[in-house]
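stage 2 :: seqdesign
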C-alpha cells in the first residue's frame, strides 16, 4: 500500500508531496494540469524507462520517492534521474537494478492506463490474462511446463547441431584418421626428447668421458694405489679405536671415507666399460631425435601437447564412429521429452479451461454490473499444432455487448468506453485473486459518461473495499465516489509553470465536483448538483484499512 508520494523537479512539478488514503483516492484536474505528468512520475519510480527530458528545466536532476508498506514492513522506493542520462533506483536505501525494481513493484502496485486497453484487444495477451485468474491453481503446472519446454528444446538443439555438424565431421574423418595414425606410429613418450638429447650428448663425447673416467679409476687402483694406502691407514686407526671415544669416532669417519671411495672406484670401472658406442648406435639415437623434432615443428607443440592432440583426435574419431548411435539416442530422447511436454500441456490446458469457464461466469456478472445489459462473454480456447511455454492452447476473448449480436473478437469492439469498462471488469475479478495491494487507474473513464460513469465509480468503490485505489479522472460521477479526493492544478509563478496538488476536505470536494459539472465552482446550482451527486452515490460501509491490514 502507498502511504506517501514525493516528487521533485519532474517536468512541471517543482516539488509535490501528498499522503494517500487506504481506500479510494481520486485525483481530478483540468486538461494540461499535470495529471499525466503525475502518473508518469509514479510509473518512473516503479521501474518504467527513465526519460531525462522530464527533468525540470534549470535543474540537474529529478527525484521521485514513494513510501509505503506491505503488512508491517516499510517500503521506500526512490528513482533519481540525472542530466547525464543515468538513473539511480533504490529499494529501502539499497541501489538495485531496474529489473529487480520492476519485479518487486509488479507485486506491489498495478498501474492501469490507456495502453492496457490496447493490450486487451490483442489476442496474444488473452492467454496471459486468463492464466492470471486463479493463478495459484495453474502456477505450479505452468512452471513444470516451462521446465519441460526448455528441456525438450535443449535436446532438440543438440540433435539439430549434430545433424549440421555430421557432414563436416564426415569430411574431416580422413584427416583426423591420418593425423592420428601418424602420431600413433611415432609412439611418443613424455620427456623422450630430453632423454635422447642427453644420451646423444653422452655418445658424442664418449672418448673424452672415457679418458676422464678411466684415468680416475687408474689413479685409485694402480700400484701404488690410493685405495691400498687408505686401506692401510684405516687398519691402523681401527687398531687404536678402542682407546678413546674420540679415536673411535675418527676411525669410523675414516672407514666411511674409504668405503665411499671403494664404491666410487667400482662405479668408475663399470662406467668406463659401458662407454663404448658404435656409429650405428649414435645414428639411431640421432635419427629418432630428428623424427621427434620434425613432429614438434610440424604441430608447433611439445611432445606432451602432441600426445594430448592425439587423444583429442581419438575422441573426435570416436564421436564420428558413433554418430548413428548418437542420432538414434537423441531422437529417442526427443520423442520422450515431447511426450512429457505434451502430457503436461494437457494438464495445463484442463486447468486453464476450468478457470476460463469460471472467469466467463464472473465476467458476465461484472459486465452486467457495468451497464452491459444482456451481454455475452466467452473465452474461446483452441488447440495449436505447436507447443509453447504456455502450452498448446490458443485463447481469444469473444464478446457481444448488445442483445441479438453474435459473439465477436474483442478487437472488433469500436467503443473506447466499452473497452475501459471491460478492462475494469477484468481488474476487479483478477485483482481480487492476486496479492497486489494498490491499483492505479488512469484514463479509466475514457469514452463513458452519465449513468455508466456512476456505475464505474461504484465498481471502483467495490474494489477499494479490498485494496487501495488511486484513480485519475475528469468525470464528476466517478470523483463523487472518492474516499480521499485531490485536486491537481497548474500555477504560473515567476514565468514558470508549477503543478501542485491539494487534498480536499468535504467543502473542497463539492467545489471540485461543481467545477467538473458546470465549470463554475461557485455556482449555487452547480454546488447543489454536486451535493445531489454525492448523496446519490451509494455509500459502501466503511472499509478504510489501517496499517498492517
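stage 2 :: out
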Amino acid at each position: 500500500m502507498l502511504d506517501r508520494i514525493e516528487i521533485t523537479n519532474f517536468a512541471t512539478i517543482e516539488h509535490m508531496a501528498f499522503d494517500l488514503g487506504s481506500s479510494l483516492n481520486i485525483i481530478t484536474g483540468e486538461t494540461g494540469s499535470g495529471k499525466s505528468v503525475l502518473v508518469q512520475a509514479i510509473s518512473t519510480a516503479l521501474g518504467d524507462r527513465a526519460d531525462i527530458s522530464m527533468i525540470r528545466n534549470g535543474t540537474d536532476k529529478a527525484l521521485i520517492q514513494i513510501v509505503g508498506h506491505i503488512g508491517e514492513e516499510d517500503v521506500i522506493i526512490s528513482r533519481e534521474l540525472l542530466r547525464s542520462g543515468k538513473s539511480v533506483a533504490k529499494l529501502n536505501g539499497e541501489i538495485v537494478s531496474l529489473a529487480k525494481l520492476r519485479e518487486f513493484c509488479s507485486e506491489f502496485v498495478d498501474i492501469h492506463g490507456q495502453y492496457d486497453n490496447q493490450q486487451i484487444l490483442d489476442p496474444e495477451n488473452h492467454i496471459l490474462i486468463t492464466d492470471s485468474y486463479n493463478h495459484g491453481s495453474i502456477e505450479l503446472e505452468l512452471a513444470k511446463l516451462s521446465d519441460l519446454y526448455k528441456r525438450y528444446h535443449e535436446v532438440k538443439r543438440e540433435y539439430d547441431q549434430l545433424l549440421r555438424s555430421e557432414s563436416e565431421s564426415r569430411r574431416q574423418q580422413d584427416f583426423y584418421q591420418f593425423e592420428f595414425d601418424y602420431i600413433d606410429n611415432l609412439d611418443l613418450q613424455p620427456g623422450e626428447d630430453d632423454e635422447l638429447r642427453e644420451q646423444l650428448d653422452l655418445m658424442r663425447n664418449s672418448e673424452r668421458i672415457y679418458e676422464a673416467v678411466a684415468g680416475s679409476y687408474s689413479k685409485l687402483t694402480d700400484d701404488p694405489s690410493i685405495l691400498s694406502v687408505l686401506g692401510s691407514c684405516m687398519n691402523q686407526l681401527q687398531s687404536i679405536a678402542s682407546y678413546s671415544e674420540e679415536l673411535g669416532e675418527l676411525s669410523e669417519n675414516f672407514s666411511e671415507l674409504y668405503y665411499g671411495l671403494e664404491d666410487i672406484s667400482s662405479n668408475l670401472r663399470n662406467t668406463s666399460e659401458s662407454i663404448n658406442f658404435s656409429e650405428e648406435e649414435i645414428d639411431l639415437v640421432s635419427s629418432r631425435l630428428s623424427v621427434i623434432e620434425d613432429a614438434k615443428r610440424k604441430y608447433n607443440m611439445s611432445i606432451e601437447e602432441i600426445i594430448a592432440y592425439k587423444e583429442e583426435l581419438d575422441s573426435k574419431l570416436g564421436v564420428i564412429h558413433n554418430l548413428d548411435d548418437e542420432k538414434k539416442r537423441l531422437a529417442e530422447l526427443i520423442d520422450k521429452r515431447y511426450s512429457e511436454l505434451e502430457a503436461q500441456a494437457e494438464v495445463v490446458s484442463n486447468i486453464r479451461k476450468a478457470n476460463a469457464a469460471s472467469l466467463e461466469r464472473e465476467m458476465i456478472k461484472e459486465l452486467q454490473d457495468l451497464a452491459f445489459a444482456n451481454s455475452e462473454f466467452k473465452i474461446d480456447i483452441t488447440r495449436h499444432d505447436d507447443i509453447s511455454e504456455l502450452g498448446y492452447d490458443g485463447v481469444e476473448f469473444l464478446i457481444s455487448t448488445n442483445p441479438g449480436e453474435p459473439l465477436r473478437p474483442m478487437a472488433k469492439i469500436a467503443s473506447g468506453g466499452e473497452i475501459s469498462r471491460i478492462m475494469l471488469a477484468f481488474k476487479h475479478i483478477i485483482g481480487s485473486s492476486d496479492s497486489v495491494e494498490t491499483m492505479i487507474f488512469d484514463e479509466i473513464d475514457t469514452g463513458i459518461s452519465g449513468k455508466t460513469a456512476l456505475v464505474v465509480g461504484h465498481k471502483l468503490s467495490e474494489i477499494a473495499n479490498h485494496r487501495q485505489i488511486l484513480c485519475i479522472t475528469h468525470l464528476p460521477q466517478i470523483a463523487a465516489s472518492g474516499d480521499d479526493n485531490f485536486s491537481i492544478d497548474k500555477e504560473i509563478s515567476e514565468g514558470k509553470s508549477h503543478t501542485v496538488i491539494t487534498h480536499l476536505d468535504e467543502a473542497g470536494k463539492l467545489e471540485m465536483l461543481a467545477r467538473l459539472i458546470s465549470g463554475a465552482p461557485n455556482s449555487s446550482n452547480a454546488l447543489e448538483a454536486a451535493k445531489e451527486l454525492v448523496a446519490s452515490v451509494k455509500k459502501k460501509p466503511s472499509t478504510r484499512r489501517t496499517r498492517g491490514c
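stage 3 :: structure notes
- The domain at 1-108+437-549 is CATH 3.40.50.300 (Rossmann fold).
- Residues 540-549 have pLDDT under 50 and may be disordered.
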